[in-house]
Write a structure and sequence with these properties.
By secondary structure, the chain is mainly alpha-helical. The protein has seven helices and three strands; from the N terminus they run ααβααββααα. A three-stranded antiparallel sheet has the order 1-3-2. Residues 151-164 have low confidence and may be disordered.
């Protein structure tokens, strides 16, 4: 039985995320990709391609870690690297046709996992959950930006505008 402390927002969000990830990995194991690789593919599929450093930022990992991840994915035919036409130092990573085809299948699989997770919730409860989580994310993103978006940053922006 869980203690009252384990029913806090942090514990519930962490447990839900962990269990969703575990369920998704079990259902998607036939593709041979880890959850980190799937996350990378989602970013690549949605963006059309990213610089390795930018992908590392999105995945919240060090650039060397994303490089190793991309190495394995490239060996499996999931991604390809190419030089950035704007900057020779930058390597762009793109999803291959194989990845894009699998991505469409896995979107459907993810929808099934989400439906399983949301079983027993009415459409109104599902909508309220999504609305609440969206607000939580917005609040936390705003707090992340707070030091850079505070009065001093706004004053600098105003000064920049007057200088123009």
């Amino acid at each position: 039985m869980k203690s009252a402390q384990q029913n806090t927002l942090g514990f519930l969000l962490h447990d839900a995320s962990r269990l969703l990830r575990r369920r998704f990995e079990a259902r998607g194991a036939g593709y041979g990709l880890s959850s980190s690789q799937w996350r990378a593919l989602v970013y690549l599929a949605r963006s059309g391609g990213l610089a390795q450093a930018r992908l590392a930022e999105f995945l919240e990992v060090e650039p060397i870690s994303v490089s190793r991840l991309i190495d394995r994915m490239e060996q499996g035919g999931w991604v390809c690297r190419s030089p950035d036409p704007q900057d020779r130092r930058v390597r762009l990573v793109r999803a291959t046709e194989k990845a894009m085809s699998a991505f469409e299948e896995v979107k459907a699989l993810a929808g099934e996992v989400y439906d399983e997770a949301l079983a027993g919730l009415s459409p109104a409860q599902r909508a309220a959950l999504m609305e609440g989580l969206t607000q939580v994310v917005a609040n936390l993103q705003e707090m992340d930006c707070a030091p850079a978006c505070g009065p001093a940053a706004r004053q600098e922006d105003d000064e920049d505008e007057r200088a123009k």
